Design the sequence.
């Protein structure tokens, strides 16, 4: 705690003592000012992380935050404080040019996509009414191309497995067929893959997937989708999960989320 001096006590000090006292107070003020600037810098950084933009890019090149100029920290975003740092040269203005359209880009975009030819024609009666009987000739077709998009198609896969039995033996053989993803369940590999992709790649919650399936006339509850995903993860992805879990312990540094997950699973 700093000492407090009265006017009467200060008058009793000699000149040498007053000088030492002044220098000591000056040093304390410098330390307080330095600590205050550090605190303000930390406070601004905390506010930026909590309330600021996710991007670290400033709106303006002249906008600064806690920048050191001539050995001092500027903490009021004073753009004029760093104006002297500029070499004085005016920025070279480059006229904006409209980007040239890449030749052949449309053909490149359409390359490899299946093409469905849709013909539009007029009947003989319509042509005769327009030009008269035999009064027309056909020119080369006008061709225009558009992207065609078909939404998800839902169908029921009904597998009929042929069963055979020997006439002279009791042997019964079934025709080769794919195993069920979950025995006794309506889920198929394609459906579960779509559910996982929507949830974990496109971040679509299960309740929104349930609504989307309803629009297709397919009644799948979010509870069923959750159970399918959990069981498939335990049955088919547990080996990969255990491998990645073990692999994590071989690294020197782990990310925070991975470390918490590893610690949680180890406990």
Sequence:
């Amino acid at each position: 705690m700093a000492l407090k001096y009265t006017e009467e006590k200060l008058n009793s000090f000699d000149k040498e003592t007053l000088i030492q006292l002044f220098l000591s107070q000056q040093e304390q003020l410098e330390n307080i000012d330095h600590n205050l600037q550090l605190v303000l810098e930390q406070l601004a950084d905390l506010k930026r992380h909590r309330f600021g933009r996710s991007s670290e890019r400033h709106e303006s090149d002249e906008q600064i935050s806690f920048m050191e100029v001539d050995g001092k920290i500027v903490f009021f975003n004073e753009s004029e404080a760093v104006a002297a740092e500029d070499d004085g040269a005016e920025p070279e203005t480059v006229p904006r040019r409209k980007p040239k359209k890449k030749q052949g880009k449309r053909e490149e975009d359409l390359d490899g996509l299946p093409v469905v030819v849709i013909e539009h024609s007029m009947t003989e009666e319509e042509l005769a009414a327009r030009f008269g009987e035999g009064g027309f000739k056909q020119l080369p077709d006008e061709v225009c191309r558009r992207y065609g998009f078909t939404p998800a198609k839902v169908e029921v896969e009904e597998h009929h497995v042929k069963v055979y039995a020997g006439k002279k033996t009791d042997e019964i053989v079934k025709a080769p067929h794919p195993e069920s993803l979950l025995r006794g369940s309506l889920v198929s590999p394609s459906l579960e893959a779509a559910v996982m992709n929507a949830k974990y790649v496109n971040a679509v919650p299960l309740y929104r997937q349930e609504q989307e399936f309803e629009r297709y006339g397919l009644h799948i509850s979010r509870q069923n989708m959750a159970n399918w995903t959990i069981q498939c993860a335990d049955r088919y992805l547990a080996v990969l999960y255990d491998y990645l879990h073990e692999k994590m312990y071989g690294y020197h540094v782990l990310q925070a989320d991975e470390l918490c997950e590893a610690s949680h699973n180890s406990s």
